[in-house]
Amino acid sequence: MDYSEGLSVPTVELANGLKIPLLGLGTSHQGGYSHSSVVYALKECGIRHIDTAKRYGCESYLKKAIKESGVNHENLWITTKLWPGDYGYGATKAACLDSCKNLGVDYIDLYLMHWPDGNVLGKTNRELRAETWQAIEELYDEGICRSIGVSNFLISHLEQLKEDCDIIPHVNQVEYHPFYKPQELVDYCRSQGIVFEGYCPLAKGLALSHPTIIEKAEKYHCTPAQICIRWSIQNGIVTIPKSTKKERIWENCQVFDFSLSEEDMTSLNSLEDNKKLVTLKFPLWKEH
Q1: pLDDT above 90: percentage of residues in the chain
Q2: Cys-Cys crosslink for 197: which of 113, 118, 173, 204, Cβ 3.0 to 4.6 Å?
Q3: Strand bridging mode 171-175 / 195-199
Q4: pLDDT for residue 62 is more than 60
Q5: pLDDT class of 5 with cuts at 50, 70, 90
Q6: Is the distance from CB of 56 to CB of 85 less than 8 angstroms?
Q7: Is the per-residue pLDDT at 149 higher than 70?
Q8: Are 44 and 250 in contact (CB under 8 A)?
Q9: Hey, CA dihedral for 279, 285, 286, 288, is it positive or negative?
Q10: pLDDT score for 277
Q11: Of residues 3, 33, 40, 56, which has the active-site annotation?
Q12: What is the mean pLDDT of the chain?
């Protein structure tokens, strides 16, 4: 994969040898979807890593944006996710092919199980995870998914999957920001060769008004958002900030021309912790 025409972003090597860009653009069903901003991110900002999910409802929109941008898929890294309502062997296979069709691609660069739990009568969550992962492994073997992983999995989920299946996930995508740093999970993933990817790096905007983060932004002559993204990247986390505003997308990309000092990294690493912002209960995914 050649990212030479895009933003100069370092990559992280997965266990299978593929390299994922350290910075990407997240998309979401929350706050709407901006077609022009995604095209702008690809054409003007040089973003080459797009993260989405079936749940977000914008895969087909991304197909149009990618086509309009003129960037070929072979120069992009596209991640999408399998919603729990599609867990199970046959449903997983069908959902992945639907995502390919919606995105207008022959393969997905990274396919993730969106959450560890589902709800299928007569099956435990562990059994459902194993059955679903078996289907994802087959999609990987068939080349439909170039790499595979999970999202929001804890150590216990990963341990069970390791016992029940053949391929250890290449990636675990989890909430990660200055107020929620699950370091034990990060360390475990690294010990298993699983790349840790962080979403919600700005803590849904809460980090932008924190006094310590504002102080660092003034010191480095940048924005609080850039401090959060740079901090996450310097911690070795693949980071996917979201925005529908062009100026914010541009701003979020300008994080490779400065580094935070060891003292400032320590300061940010020691901010109040355990403020997890994203949760999901069963009825929500049943509806979708």
Answers
A1: 85
A2: 173
A3: parallel
A4: yes
A5: low
A6: no
A7: yes
A8: yes
A9: positive
A10: 75
A11: 56
A12: 92
Separation CA 73–CA 87 (nearest Å): 27
Give me the phi and psi of 78, to 5 degrees please: -115, 120
**Higher pLDDT pick, 95 / 121:** 95
Over residues 195-209, the pLDDT tens digits come to: 999 999 999 999 999
Among this protein's residues, is 56 annotated catalytic? yes
pLDDT band at 276 (very low <50, low <70, confident <90, very high): confident
pTM, two decimal places: 0.93
Half-sphere exposure (Cβ direction) of 44: Cα atoms closer than 13 Å:
13
Q: Give the chain's length.
A: 288
Per DSSP, the residues of the chain read ---TTS----EEE-TTS-EEESB-EE--STT---HHHHHHHHHTS---EEE--GGGT-HHHHHHHHHHHT--GGG-EEEEEE-GGG-SHHHHHHHHHHHHHHHT-S-BSEEEES-S----TT--HHHHHHHHHHHHHHHHHTTSBSSEEEES--HHHHHHHHHH-SS--SEEEEE-BTTB--HHHHHHHHHTTPEEEEE-TTGGGGGGG-HHHHHHHHHHTS-HHHHHHHHHHHTT-EEE-B-S-HHHHHHHH--SS----HHHHHHHHTS----------HHHHHT-
Instruction: Label residues 250-267 b or e (16+ Cβ within 10 Å = b).
Output: bbbbbbeeeebeeebbeb
Distance CA 249, CA 104 (A): 24
Q: What is the pLDDT of residue 152?
A: 96
